[in-house]
């Protein structure tokens, strides 16, 4: 197992290198200047040049690339142009928001998605199956930002159950954290619920038609035990694959949700950095998100073996 | 503004009295009006996070919203952008116009408890000269010295009539910091000023919190709030500036009471909230002038007949009504109506909307039917402006391709000679600051990408002229030149809607969501 993990980590390094190179190249191909963010529309080219010099943006391209790789090899993601702090610090201080949002959304999506998928599979071709699948399709189709705004107007403005936006750290207050995260996490999870539900349904339907299920049923086990003890574990491998993909999608979706709910997370950092051309932050964050994505996939691979002992990682 | 040539003209008392005559909101009660109450927290919903809380290093509007509560300048602008003393008691200008002796107010405290003296003022101005974003503003300064514990002497290289204008600019404020902070690397700079609110915390992408500075002494030379100067009395205990980019979320936060001030909202929302007693919907008009620039380095925009054709064709009202519904004003002046330099000179050519005349000009121009590029940023009003101008010019046969990008892209491209013919955006702070600032962006061909010797001469004349009447005449000539040569097209004034909770009393819309002088009705 350790050799497997070590090998996967080694394979990840070139991927990360490629991601960083691509992010660097793409950013330099896009026109725009972070110095403009410091200035009003009436600013003079001299002022622009002055800010560019102060920020080190007038260095030749190749020097900036070399400096970037030197830094990341030393574990330093560089200094943000606009935030007056290191990229690592900028990511770390926003990470709790994004991680808690993603984790809570994953919990919502997993619980609701698997439950809905199980219900649909167990009541195959019934009204429950049909309505669950219609809801799943609806969840997949609704734009996140629209759903977020609707929830804000419904649950924050009208019912006053949740705040309209903002973040309360978990360390400060659990209740405050829950109130600030529940709506954004649900919005983020909504799309993925549909995805997981559909995948769980089809995986379960396949398993429920297997001989061992018929045997378990024949020997008199209650149907709920047959489904949860024998059916579900055998349907887990495709569901785990989906959960790996879903986690990546949730990280991506957090960008929109953080914007709508004014959450100060990594997604907001990325959006701000892209709009202001804060190159080091864009590069650092992309590298960081790619690393998380690779890590999630590694964890999913390990979980395959846990869920199905027939899978041999070595 | 005032004629600065007379010695000792500016005593703060005089300026303060002048300021008090302009019909400003009054914090103290008239008969039957509520008395100010101290305390409470006000949350202000801002559209974005500031790039910096170091006032000397940014000219972004959102930074101003916060920073001008924390920092002060020697001179500042009153309600109508007039130059008045703030941290200075007054100034004595030599007869030759090159030496300024500033007397500083005594007993002004920094947020760290230190009392401000001339050493702090000199160190702050010197820091600005070195790293200030608009350090070019001080390029005419020969020497700055502390000539007494509370006296600063500034010697100019030559006469620069706009020196006090620049010293009082809220654009990139020449904020006065403690001398020890000015010596630090900007990364280690602590946000310490003399303003009525002091820094508490900054949570990236989330909020900045300020609180009332208990040791703040309002300027005794004034009796009322007045622009960025005047009497700055804080009644509110704490202010949280929350960065909420999504307009729907800002409106929702207002409705739930999580925010008490929404810096800006759109017209339909403002209309919807107008009848709601929980809110005051306020108009901040004028806030900026919408302009369409020509790239004079590119044909056919280098042809005055082509530019005149464009200017003659446009129906400004149509464009403004689309881009800024319910919050615009047709006005050809290149400064705001309240400026003492405001003039109608040349504006007979504003909004003439004469397609026949436009076609005549066009026929005499070098335009050959090619497609021209109109660049604009992706904000709704600027995109609407570009789109409507495209439609209008299409009526006289000018083909335009509108290219929409984000602000960093457009603002980089727009200062280069290639890749664009037209560019539209708002000019907010420049018309507010006065003729020198406005003319500066057209001098040396900065905005039109090609030198205009007439503008350059007028700008030089303005800087060298100390007599106010003559400066007014120079500005009138500049404005006439802008219209007669269609250097650029001014579409008119636009503003913005601000929504303020009815619990906030004595709030008056201004260029920043000003909290001093307001209080919370608990």
Summarize the structure.
The complex is a heterodimer of chains A (314) and B (522). With 314 residues, chain A is mainly alpha-helical.
Mean pLDDT of chain B: 91
Q: Count the helices of chain B. How many?
A: 16
Helix content of chain A: over 70%
Let me know the number of strands of chain B: 22
The total count of helices of chain A amounts to 11
Biggest beta sheet summary of chain A:
none
Distance between the termini of chain B: 39 Å
Gyration radius of chain A, in Å: 24 Å
Low-confidence stretches of chain A: none
Notable characteristics:
heterodimer; A: 314 residues; mainly alpha; globular; B: 522 residues; alpha+beta; eleven-stranded mixed sheet; five-stranded antiparallel sheet; 16 helices
Q: What's the structural blueprint in terms of helices and strands?
A:
The complex is a heterodimer of chains A (314) and B (522).
Chain A: H1 2-29, H2 45-54, H3 61-73, H4 87-122, H5 127-141, H6 144-158, H7 174-208, H8 211-218, H9 223-260, H10 266-276, H11 279-307
Chain B: E1 10-11, H1 12-20, E2 41-46, H2 61-70, E3 75-77, E4 83-85, E5 88-93, E6 99-104, H3 118-131, E7 141-148, E8 151-156, H4 163-167, H5 179-182, E9 197-203, E10 207-212, E11 225-226, E12 229-230, E13 238-243, H6 247-256, E14 261-265, H7 267-274, E15 279-294, H8 304-313, H9 316-323, E16 328-329, H10 355-363, E17 371-377, H11 380-394, E18 399-405, H12 407-413, E19 422-427, H13 429-433, H14 435-440, H15 453-464, H16 468-484, E20 488-501, E21 504-505, E22 519-520
Parallel strand pairs in B: 2-13, 2-14, 17-18, 17-19
Antiparallel strand pairs in B: 1-5, 3-4, 5-6, 6-8, 7-8, 9-10, 10-13, 11-12, 14-20, 15-19, 15-20, 16-20, 21-22
Helix pairs in contact in B: 8-10, 9-11, 15-16
